[in-house]
């Protein structure tokens, strides 16, 4: 009889322990980001919009710069042959077929053949400025997002901390620590989101600057080669 009672008690122990075991509270990332009140939600939405804009500008400019840097390695040799043979129209047609910053720069110089070298150089420089402007279109927006993202996130944190301490002040110091802690870590999520946006935009901006500089150097080298071609003795 006693043995049977002991066995039944032992069998019931796991179920009692399972009932008494505390349930761990879990919170999804989306719930965490959206649980900061109306002010926190507005800031998170703004940061998501900035992140989308930064990613869109990065890939749009990356593909544009990649297309601009694609020039046939034999392009200048063909231009030299056409110009040396006096076949200016063929050189213009070749530039139009390439349709790149380097070819447009060369076409501008070819169209000025017969003018003084200083005028040709000025025309090429002016055309180069326009090409650089096209390459850098909207890239400055990435720099702005890289600086504004963390600042907006920090603004959300400050607002969250102000609200948390306001709750503490209005409760005469008797506010529950759980509510305060939840408000504080929710406020910190805006800083994390802002830093993520800033880091993505900063890396994207610097990568585009490096790629743009390569195309600019390519244009400068082409301009020098073209001017040297015109300076060669007949």
Straight-line distance between termini? 122 Å
Instruction: Using the CA coordinates, give the radius of gyration.
Output: 33 Å
What integer is the average pLDDT? 76
Overall 3D form: rod-shaped
Which percent band covers the strand fraction?
under 5%
| Tally of structural domains | 1
Please outline the major beta sheet: none
Poorly predicted runs = 15-20
Helices and strands, in order, run as: HHHHHHHHH
Number of strands: 0
Structural class: mainly alpha
Total of DSSP H or I helical runs spanning 4+ residues: 9
In which range does the helix fraction lie?
over 70%
Describe the protein in words.
Mean pLDDT is about 75; it is low at about 15-20. The chain has one domain (about 35-65, about 75-230). It is mostly helical and about 230 residues long. The chain is built from 9 helices and no strands.
Short account of what is shown:
By secondary structure, this protein is mainly α. The protein has 9 helices and no strands.
